[in-house]
UniProtKB/TrEMBL annotation:
UniProt protein name: Chemotaxis protein
Coiled-coil features, chain-numbered ranges: none
High-level lineage: Bacteria, Pseudomonadati, Bdellovibrionota, Bdellovibrionia, Bdellovibrionales
UniProt-listed GO biological process terms: phosphorelay signal transduction system
InterPro entries, alphabetized: CheY-like_superfamily, Sig_transdc_resp-reg_receiver, ST_Response_Regulator
Length: 130
């Protein structure tokens, strides 16, 4: 089963790395954004299954962006991906709409395991690819 995703990060090279990992794990990239405002507009236009969301971005941070996305689409899955590894901030992110969280630097396995956390039904198809 395929899942459709967006990657939101102000660093283009990180968007590319994450996109490649998720495509290899059976995902279909339907867009990229470099800030929170672009992310919200893209979510509205494309309705992905999953958003990979950085915490520190221009215009809106990850928590503000996740809150806006979840207000519009509470069922949408969001995985945070950031260098921020302070437990209090990660907890706030999770209560603000993040369904999972990966700390940078990350491995391919970190990303894939968090996709499986939010989409456990993909276990067979993803594990067969990695």
């Amino acid at each position: 089963m395929k899942y459709r995703f967006l990657v939101v990060d102000d660093a283009g090279f990180l968007r590319e790395i994450i996109k490649n990992i998720l495509v290899d794990a059976g995902g279909v990239c339907i867009g990229e954004a470099s800030n929170g405002d672009e992310a919200i507009a893209l979510v509205q236009a494309t309705l992905p299954d999953l958003v990979i969301l950085d915490m520190v971005m221009p215009h809106r941070n990850g928590i503000q962006t996740a809150q806006a996305i979840k207000e519009l689409h509470p069922e949408m899955k969001i995985i945070g991906c950031s260098t921020i590894d302070e437990e209090a901030i990660i907890q706030k992110a999770c209560t603000s709409g993040f369904d999972a969280y990966v700390t940078k630097p990350f491995s391919k396995e970190d990303i894939v395991q968090n996709v499986l956390k939010v989409f456990p039904h993909l276990g067979e198809s993803i594990n067969g690819r990695t």
